[in-house]
Amino acid sequence: MNDLISRQAAIDVEGLDEQIRCEMCRNPMHTNRGCDGNCKYDEKLYERIMQILGERIKPLSSAQLEPICINLNEPIKVKLTDWGKRIYYHRYDRINRMAGREICKARFPREDENGYTEFQLWCFIELYGEHMGMTLPNVIEPLEIVYER
Q: How far is the C-alpha of 44 from the C-alpha of 81, rounded, in Å?
């Protein structure tokens, strides 16, 4: 149990098995099926584990959270969905209609070998801002923006 927990979060796992014990025989609990002494199912195991872990999790202090300053001209990378690529392709349609001719040629976004498209941050916001929201289809997937300093 300690290996799994220590890989998942910054939790002090020293002596954790000693704190999670069977209510019947006080042997260390290793699963929700009971203890090493084969006692009956312990219904309160989950609650005890969550309480102990909650006490051991070290909350981040505000001193550990350093603000990151990003210039709007900085490049970012995203993986566009098919919907995001379609929006990119048709981004000049309105300008071309207003001009009465094709003054800006439509093209699909360039992707690197990992499927990422690079934008200046402000360009991404300008193009996709109106297409992003709670009930709208995602324009990027995964929902991550990659910023490399």
A: 44
Kindly list the domain boundaries of the chain, sorted by start residue: 2-56, 67-149
Count Cβ atoms below 10 Å from residue 101 Cβ, excluding itself.
7
Nearest one of 117, 110, 112, 108 to 141, comparing CA atoms: 117
Token readout for 86 is: 């379609």
Give per-residue pLDDT as tens, 38-89.
665 556 666 777 777 777 666 655 556 677 788 999 999 999 999 999 999 9
* pTM reported for the whole predicted model: 0.56
Residues 10, 61, 65, 116, CA torsion sign: positive
Q: How far apart are CA 8 and CA 128, in angstroms?
A: 34
Classify residue 109 by its DSSP letter: P
User: Sign of dihedral through CA atoms 31, 35, 39, 44?
Assistant: negative
Taking every pair of Cα atoms in the chain, the longest distance, rounded to a whole number of angstroms, is 84
Within 8 A by CB and 6+ apart from 122, the residues are 72, 73
Cis preceding-peptide flag for 142 (omega within 30 of 0): yes
Asked whether 108 and 87 are in contact (CB, 8 A), the reply is no
Reading the block at residue 95, the tokens are: 């300008």
